[in-house]
Design brief:
9 helices; 215 residues; 8-stranded parallel beta barrel; alpha/beta; TIM Barrel
Length: 215
Amino acid sequence: MKRLVLPRLYVILDAALLTAPETECAQKLAAAGVRLLQYRNKRASARELFESSKGLSSLLIPQDVIFVLNDRADVASAVEASGVHLGQEDLRAEAARSVIGTGKLLGVSTHNLEQFKEAAATSADYVAVGPVFSTSTKANPDPVVGIEFISSARALTGKPIVAIGGITLERAAEVIQAGADSVAVISDILLARDPGQRARQYIEVLEAAKPAAAV
């Protein structure tokens, strides 16, 4: 089976941090070269989430940008997103898979080795780990796992690993070197004066980073 290769930069479009319409921000990021975007909106009603997600899906998919929706497999399926990303409190992976189907991306967030092993054994296409460093984008963040955790997780699966949590431009390369396939960034891009330019800087740094040996 061909191994899934994710873009090295994974931008999470968190509605709580946006100062402009999400489609405007998403278009700037797509124009800057971002090829993987997740939309996260914890406060929206089901209708608002559907409408926002539909707008993003219609904008991004034709531009060959992978568009993943946070939490909601049903909405992801309805708006024809590329897939869904699940947290530990969301639907179980196989339940979400039954909603989105086999051709769509399924990602799962994990915060310790037990959760990671469990997620890697499901039909999830990739597994996210974190927070790698301390982060300010969650009200009650899980304990920091550190860079060593990525190396430990890397030895357990051939599936892509997405690292998240407090990652900055200065530390992005070491996360790839530790074994992550992709780096998820939220505030360091969304809150930048020019998010598109910041995203381009990340892409440059990440593409130059030497990955760990594959499993």
